[in-house]
Amino acid sequence: MSEKTACGLDCYDACNIIYEDGKMHGDANHPAGNGALCAVLNKYMDETERISKPRVDGKEVSLEEALAAVAEAFNKEKSLLWRGSGNVGVMQEVTDLFMEQIGGYLTKGSLCDGAGAAGIEEGRGINKTLPLEQIQKSEVVVVWGRNLTVTNSHLMPYLEGKKLIVIDPVRTEIAKKADVFLQVAPRTDYYIAIMLSRFIFMEDSENKEWMEEFAPGFEDYYDYTREHRIKAILKYIDLDLGDFGRVLNYLRDRKVVFLVGAGVQKYSTGSYTLHAIDSLAAVLGLFGREGCGVSYLGDSKLGFKNPFETTCKRVSKVDTEFSDFDTVLVQGGNPAASMPDTNRVVEELEGVENLIYFGLHENETSKMARIVIPAKTFYEKEDVRLSYGHQYVTAMKKITESDIGISEYDFTKYLFDTFDLSGLESEEYYINAWLSQCEELNGELVSPAYEALPYSDGFGDDGEDEFEFIEDFNDDFVNTKRFTKYRKESQNKPKDETLWLLSPKSKKSINTQFLRDNKIQLNPVLGFKDGEKVKVSSEHGEYIFEVQCSEYMRADCALITNNTIGINYLTPSIISDEGESACYQEVKVKIERA
Ligand SMILES: Nc1nc2c(c(=O)[nH]1)N[C@H]1C(S)=C(S)[C@@H](COP(=O)(O)OP(=O)(O)OC[C@H]3O[C@@H](n4cnc5c(=O)[nH]c(N)nc54)[C@H](O)[C@@H]3O)O[C@H]1N2
Ligand SMILES: Nc1nc2c(c(=O)[nH]1)N[C@H]1C(S)=C(S)[C@@H](COP(=O)(O)OP(=O)(O)OC[C@H]3O[C@@H](n4cnc5c(=O)[nH]c(N)nc54)[C@H](O)[C@@H]3O)O[C@H]1N2
Ligand code: SF4
Ligand SMILES: [Mo]
């Protein structure tokens, strides 16, 4: 007997999984997979111990007792649900319905892709997903701040035979395969996109015909690009005209797809960067054309009517003031490690009377919680998997049973029953509410927002708007006083000794789930040795890491993957200009021998 489900982990690919004779394997027929699952699923997930027993005040108790403690905690005046993305199935949101009933709070904003998504909305109105078949039909692929072989590996077959441009501060695996690789200074992508637009206008390679119909503001955008001084900017971004020339050779009159990742937008200016990249794509006329487009983390729920929509009040997910609440339910997340500015977060969480952790694994947050509720894994419950990387939707079937834990639906049902509330439909009702809105394409379900050629009619909700070019850029970070302290300390030295801190994803984890790390990657010219312990500090905090020398790094960057214990002691809890997003990389760090 075989059954199909989908991987529920937070990942672009949303692989389908076949369960056959007690074994799991990938679905070779699924458009977003090649039959192979990744090492995270095959190995690291199995090796990670799950929480098997509920706890209250440090003591193991029965599930009934733990749930009773949860109910009592929700009798308090002010409560908050802070949900992470440990499982991205839609049923995670069913708990919102209970929060609505008790007048509780939810969060708004994003630890992930919110700044970039806001920039996309500025230009296009809505953030539609670029279908996989358009990537397939392209001639040139620009991988821009997306670590494809690690975070989106099932897209690799789509790149075969294509010209490849990679823009990244790190010589990643995908960069090594590139026809052109720009090892750029971090946080300069806005300028790169503007300069590329400017050069395209200068050499008359712009797609005027397309712009006249869909983006008539292009004359103003041309003027805007001309306000940017070429010489000064090239110096600032550390690139020369030859670099731009090599990229332009591939962009002219080709079918081009940009695969933009989270890396370019972990800054206060993240929205401007995506808006500038989209504006570049518009100059080339890449929207609505076969084999062309910009792919970013799409809005997976676009086009769906969400049965879990509520009218709850919301507080920021990025700098959440947990201690304002009597009861905080952390579901599917690990804020004590994954949120920026760990010193602040831990202090805030310590101020919560009833911290409830509802999750699978022991982590920094579960250790602080007064009540711990074990969850079911995505193999053990019914759900629906949407994707931010492609258009396909999969019904997640329950394929294994376990005595451990409780599903989000059953948890919610328990609370509705205990509080004597009405209005919760059956689990099946909600599953169907999502699945019944999908359409079918080549035997697979696809999102109701699916269009073969997004934006071919135009932009905005109804496709009747024009594309809006970027027309301003606010940056109060670079060349301001924020780093005076660090600059002063290194004043007697010839140059700024602080390094940009990059924190991309790891092959061995999904965020803080599964294998954790303790390394910092540094270019050997900085003089540190492999295995050496260093104290890394920023204006927000400090932590000790172990050096791993890497020639693939720029000398002005340090890299600590986001599964590394202690990383977020270094990061700021500031919020992006647009999109209410975290700005993990808006920070420079100092390295000293520990
Ligand atoms: N420095 C730095 N920090 C970052 C980032 C970065 O780039 N740099 N990236 C950020 C990004 S993009 C993201 S998305 C966030 C992610 O941060 P979080 O959303 O906090 O996710 P995780 O830290 O992976 O924690 C997920 C937890 O979910 C639980 N879980 C898994 N499956 C289930 C389930 O089915 N039910 C329940 N109830 N629980 C489950 C597991 O116990 C696991 O510990 O991290 C952010 N943190
Ligand atoms: N194995 C694995 N897969 C995952 C995850 C995981 O934890 N592990 N997490 C999932 C989640 S939650 C998300 S949001 C996605 C994110 O996946 P991606 O979009 O790939 O994002 P990151 O891994 O954060 O970083 C991508 C690249 O951006 C580069 N970069 C950093 N700063 C800059 C910059 O200023 N400019 C440019 N051009 N590049 C820069 C980094 O060096 C890195 O190579 O991955 C998902 N997939
Ligand atoms: S983590 Fe990503 S690549 Fe791995 S099986 Fe899940 S969806 Fe596929
Ligand atoms: Mo994410």
From TrEMBL:
The Molybdopterin oxidoreductase domain, residue ranges: 59-392
Keyword flag Plastid: no
Keyword Iron-sulfur recorded: yes
CDD domains recorded: MopB_CT
Domain of life: Bacteria
Keywords: Iron, Iron-sulfur, Metal-binding
Alphabetized PANTHER family for the sequence: OXIDOREDUCTASE YYAE-RELATED, TRIMETHYLAMINE-N-OXIDE REDUCTASE
Protein name per Swiss-Prot or TrEMBL: Molybdopterin-dependent oxidoreductase
